Amino acid sequence: MTDGLTMDEALRALAALEAAWKDDDEALSALAAGSAGERPLPALVAVYGEHAMDTLMALAFGLRATMSDEEIAEISDAVSSNIGARMSALLNQTLKAWGALSAPDDLSVTKIIAHTVIDAMRAVTEDPSRTEVLPLLATFRSYALNDG
Fold first, then answer.
1. What average pLDDT score do residues 56-85 get?
2. Is residue 93 within 8 Å of 54, Cβ to Cβ?
3. How is 94-110 classified by DSSP, letter by letter?
4. Residue 2 above 80 pLDDT?
5. pLDDT at position 31 over 70
6. How many CA atoms lie within 13 A of 108 on its CB side?
7. Do the beta carbons of residue 20 and residue 55 sit within 8 Å?
8. Which ranges of 1-148 would DSSP assign to H, the alpha helix?
9. Cα dihedral across residues 138, 147, 32, 35: positive or negative
10. Considering just the CA atoms, what is the radius of gyration of the chain in Å?
11. Among residues 13, 51, 72, 112, which is most buried (max CB within 10 A)?
12. Cα 7 off chain centre by
């Protein structure tokens, strides 16, 4: 992962998003317990949210791996001047601060952050009202497994 998340962290965050979506407190509790050296779950979910939104924004603006530096610079300028992209960055910043300050086992905060991340992910898809959450998360899980 290019943004500092390991594959294991991405998979743990995705499991938390799915558990929050399903309102599965038992799974969330197990994920929150984690092990020594793991990021607290609320912070991890928020950091993963930033990763997901960055990925979706890049796709929405047409970023491709085969682009020249000049094309990438043009897209970067387009993103920087887009109010939606700037608001997304502000939302990510807020969620990360909240996640970092939360108790590691605070399931209520984790659920709120997770639902906000899911809603943000859905908001940049083609038809948010028809975007099914579990298949969307499965796509990100596949991406994490193939990219890691």
1. 84
2. no
3. HHHHHHHHS-TT-HHHH
4. no
5. yes
6. 0
7. no
8. 7-21, 25-33, 41-60, 69-80, 83-101, 107-123, 133-147
9. positive
10. 15
11. 13
12. 13
Closest CA to 104 of 41, 44, 46: 41
C-beta of residue 46 within 8 angstroms of C-beta of residue 96: yes
Enter the DSSP assignment of 4: S
Single-letter residue type at 81: S
Whole-number pLDDT of residue 71: 86
pTM of the model: 0.87
What are the structure tokens assigned to 10, written together? 């991405």
Q: How many CB atoms lie within 10 A of CB 29?
A: 14
Of 42, 43, 48, 46, nearest to 8 by C-alpha is 48
* Other C-beta atoms lying within 10 Å of the C-beta of residue 98: 16
C-alpha 139/C-alpha 74 separation (Å) is 28
Residue 95 CA to residue 114 CA, distance in Å, equals 10
Per DSSP, 125 falls in state S
Contact indicator for 12, 140 with CB cutoff of 8 Å: no
